[in-house]
């Protein structure tokens, strides 16, 4: 009876008590009453890896592109219908499919909410962080958008991994490092003064010495905003230590390029005039 099937209500407690499902139970776990079930079944069938190899090699990529829209239509209460499909696409052999999901994972996190994001999306997000640069750039471009949705303790875990973004498959991929600097500016609002000083400061100084001028210019703004953020914090010792390090590392540098870096950092928003006038 299709009517009774469409109104089947998925019970999450069943999943926790029984890890093995019969074909009938597996089918019911993907039943909802928002859209015609036949339409959803057709969408889910298109993500079958075997079908992608025999019918259309691009079909999985199109499904990945549409998945946030499908999730929004079904609502977070019906995420159980898409969870397996999402995990299948996230582990697809084609990097273009994984890249598509990486660029939209922050949008999916907004749809699902913090609990489902922490349980189902964070593991996928962690996998993308270790993927090819073509996939990593997707999560990097929206790193702030995703991390701000996590609880503070979970968000702090990624402080240890930010340094890894400095390493790329191709060292000439300077746009990757430029995007990292842009994201770090936004991340300053998500972390405490100590976290900024301990974890973000070393990355910022490394970017200030980058070989590509475009990366350095963004990094000058990053350091400027970092000083401003630490100055506004209740603990003033961090900003004093940071200023002393700027003077020692750049202002008194034996190379003219280092001294020039110091001038450029000061130039951004007239940093020193703002702080010490």
Automatic annotation (TrEMBL):
Region ranges (Disordered): 11-30
Keywords noted in UniProt: Repeat
Protein name: PP4R1 phosphatase
Keyword Transport set for record: no
Organism: Haliaeetus albicilla
SUPFAM superfamilies found in the cross-reference section: ARM repeat (SSF48371)
Phosphoprotein is among the record's keywords: no
Gene Ontology cellular component annotations, sorted alphabetically: cytoplasm
GO-annotated molecular function: protein phosphatase regulator activity
UniProt superkingdom: Eukaryota
């Amino acid at each position: 009876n299709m009517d009774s099937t469409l109104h089947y209500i998925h019970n999450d407690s069943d999943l926790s008590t029984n890890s093995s499902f019969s074909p009938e139970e597996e089918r019911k776990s993907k039943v909802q009453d928002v859209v015609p079930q036949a339409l959803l079944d057709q969408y889910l069938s298109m993500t079958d890896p075997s079908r992608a190899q025999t019918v259309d090699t691009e079909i999985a990529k199109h499904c990945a592109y549409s998945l946030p829209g499908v999730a929004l239509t079904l609502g977070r209460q019906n995420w159980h219908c898409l969870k397996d499909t999402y995990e299948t696409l996230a582990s697809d052999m084609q990097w273009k499919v994984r890249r598509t999901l990486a660029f939209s994972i922050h949008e999916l996190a907004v749809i699902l909410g913090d609990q489902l994001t922490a349980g189902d999306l964070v593991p996928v997000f962690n996998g993308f962080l270790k993927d090819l640069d073509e996939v990593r750039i997707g999560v990097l471009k929206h790193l702030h958008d995703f991390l701000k949705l996590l609880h503070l303790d979970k968000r702090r875990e990624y402080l240890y991994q930010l340094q890894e973004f400095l390493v790329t498959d191709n060292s000439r991929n300077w746009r990757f490092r430029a995007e990292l600097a842009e994201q770090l500016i936004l991340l300053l609002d998500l972390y405490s003064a100590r976290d900024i000083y301990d974890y973000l400061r070393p990355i910022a100084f490394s970017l200030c010495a980058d070989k590509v001028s475009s990366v350095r210019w963004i990094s000058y703004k990053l350091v400027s905003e970092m000083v401003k953020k630490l100055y506004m914090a209740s603990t003033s010792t961090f900003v004093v230590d940071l200023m002393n390090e700027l003077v020692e590392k750049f202002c008194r540098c034996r190379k003219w390029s280092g001294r020039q870096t110091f001038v450029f950092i000061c130039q951004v928003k007239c940093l020193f005039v703002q702080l010490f006038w």
